[in-house]
Amino acid sequence: MQPVSYDINEHACTLSATCSGQVYTLPALWLRERCQDPDNLDGVTKQRLFDPHFLDQNITLTEVKKLSENSVQLSFSDGYSGAYDLREFDADFNPAGVVPEAKAWRSDIDKSLFYIDLAELSTDQGLRKGLETFLTYGVLIIDNVPTESGALIDVGKIFGHVRETNFGMFFEVFSRPNSTDLAYRSVALGPHTDNPYRSPIPGIQLLHYLENHTTQGLSTLADSLAVIEQLRAEDPEGFKLLCSVPVRYRYLDEDIELVERRTMIETDINGNVVGVAYSPRLDYLPLLPEHELIVFHRARKRLGELFCDPQYQWCFRLEPGQLQMFHNNRVLHGRTSFNPNEGRRHLQGAYIDLDGPKGRYKALMRKLGA
Prior knowledge:
Elements: E1 4-9, E2 14-19, E3 22-25, H1 28-33, E4 61-68, E5 71-76, E6 81-85, E7 115-117, H2 124-137, E8 139-143, H3 151-159, E9 162-163, E10 171-173, E11 189-192, E12 204-212, E13 219-223, H4 224-234, H5 236-244, E14 246-252, E15 257-263, E16 265-267, E17 273-276, E18 283-284, H6 290-308, E19 313-316, E20 323-327, E21 331-335, E22 345-352, H7 355-368
Parallel strand pairs: 7-8
Antiparallel strand pairs: 1-2, 2-3, 4-5, 5-6, 8-20, 9-22, 10-22, 11-21, 12-20, 12-22, 13-19, 13-21, 14-15, 14-18, 16-17
Helix pairs in contact: 2-7, 4-5, 4-6, 5-6
């Protein structure tokens, strides 16, 4: 979170903020809407008790009085006067708030950073550690989760609200001949995003290992933020197309058909890359002029090569009682093939929305006074 400083000018009757070297003049209308007194702002919910649409658009500041380094008394032309804690404005200059900054990683990262014991998550400091790990790296591996059916639901509730889909509150992953999804076969699964055909796309996936008696079926993870940095450096034209041209994704079975169009590389409102919707089993090339189609195909192919490159892809074995939780469209997951005749390999999976860990982290930081 970038520090914010405020300039209180009583003589000029102005108030301004400086963040990351940029100076912002705070308009009277903007300040009037953010009044903080209990007659206008509920102390519990922090919701306004008045309708801001009725404020005078031409309102002006009539007096600015400094109370302390970060507090001020403001008076306005509509007759309102109130005290303001300027620290309440900090979030307007830091859209992510107190959430840790995402850090791209490659396969040579210290993997011990990703692990935590389930018991640790029962304490405030342990939960803070787990949330910070997930929000920073997009992955968390939890040890000593009971190997009981549905135990992952209790873990999911630590971080957010479990999202029910047509697969139910959770789904079973084991080898099933003629299943409606290749995840339920013994074939290898390349790095992919789950359910890109949904709107909204599942933000977080949990996979809990109940049994694993096979020598293969290893798990793989790759951070798309690191991969996309490389793709953008190699192929700026292809990168731009993957960011701007929607792709159609489709899933169907006897009961439902789900279709969604979204760009393969996803960005936030500020244009920063946040992840990908990547699933070569489910996407379709968009209809483009021939040159652009070739560029698009080339970039999509290179994206797949990088996801499987050992310098980006981490290949490892998860044991019964371990649960991996990952940002679904940031950290791509997959698995190697396995021989189902060796023994049973049984996982359960579930989804929660991405705002869960972010919201829990912000509330926890308030509780801890951080």
